[in-house]
Known about the structure:
Elements: H1 27-40, E1 46-50, H2 56-66, E2 78-82, H3 94-105, H4 116-123, E3 130-134, E4 147-152, H5 158-168, E5 178-181, H6 191-198, E6 203-210, E7 213-218, H7 224-232, H8 237-250, H9 256-268, H10 272-284, H11 292-313, H12 324-330, H13 332-339, H14 346-353, H15 355-361
Parallel strand pairs: 1-2, 1-4, 2-3, 4-5
Antiparallel strand pairs: 5-7, 6-7
Helix pairs in contact: 1-2, 5-7, 6-8, 8-9, 9-10, 9-11, 10-11, 11-14, 12-13, 14-15
The protein binds S-adenosylmethionine (SAM).
Amino acid sequence: MSETATGRPWLTDFSGIKGAPSGMLGGQEASLLYHLARDHYQGYGDIIDAGAFLGCSAYCLAKGLDENLRVGSKSGRLHSYDLFHLWTEPGVSHDDMSDFLKRSYGIETAGQESTFHIFSQNLGALARHVRIHQGDILQEQWPGRPIEILFIDICKTQPVWQHVIRMFFKSLIPGVSLVVHQDWHHASLPYLPIAQEYMSDYFEIFEPKANDSAAFRLIDRIPDNVIEAAAAYRFTDQEQVALLDRAIRRFEGNSRFLKLLKAELLRRQGRAREALELVEDTYANHGEPMTPDEANYFSGPVDGTATAAARDLARPGNTIGFDASKYLAQRPEAAEAIASGKFDSAFHHYIRFNARDFLSRQ
Ligand SMILES: C[S@@+](CC[C@H](N)C(=O)[O-])C[C@H]1O[C@@H](n2cnc3c(N)ncnc32)[C@H](O)[C@@H]1O
């Protein structure tokens, strides 16, 4: 059966997003936004595009809205939020981010140049549907109008996610609203699935995986105290792991990024050995088939978590009679990797690439 027949046309049909500007979305998730705005949106509430960048998500939502035959009044129903200049993410410096944006999109952002003119150009006539909210979203408030589609691609730090929960979640409409998390299948933002999972009694999974995105439908009103507890994020380390475990079970079949996220969370909690074990056990036989593109995309964060966990374990007390000179003589590439700064020592390199051997000897 085709994905169109199963009600998930966005997985295979990209015709609606032809002409979309380049941005940070894959074809499936871009098409998901288009289809949600065209085929699911009923006009009961507004549409939020939180994290607009150069306008790809806004374009897909606006185009779907434009072609929506059910809704008459469309002007200003779509709200795009962005700084419209260089932003940073945990672990990425200003300079690296600026280089990345220049290389990938040909845009100059180093001196905080505005990218708003590119967004406007990219939206063209569709801009008539959009209300712009320019600036730090942490300074914004939502007036409380109902929200029908909430697209979240802005929570690159935990405080922003906490603010987004407080700002928007009270305005979702039970039985109607859809929340799309663009960073769901991503390996570095554990706070996102943890707080979303905390609210999971009130949501059902609408789309488990379209590229990096997952979508949820609100099925019941979320009590104010649950929204506040999710936003306050005062979860203990154990509660965070338990919530992530529950999300992993809920996303069975599409859980490999959540599992990697759990390994990263364990590492950040000082549980490097368990983190490395999880990376090894899950990713040697991950059991969830990947296309070569996905495998390539996945290998970066796997390497990041495994290398960081190995660094945490490469303490002198763990050396188990390790002979650094012998290892370096056998593995000339290790010396190069140490010289490049990626590894601190021969022992660090050994743990990273011989994790099973290291773990079995401990
Ligand atoms: C991954 S990009 C969004 C990509 C976009 N949805 C697309 O379709 O290509 C994340 C965006 O979030 C914005 N952002 C990050 N932190 C922000 C904040 N505190 N306030 C407003 N915008 C923010 C950045 O400026 C950036 O454009």
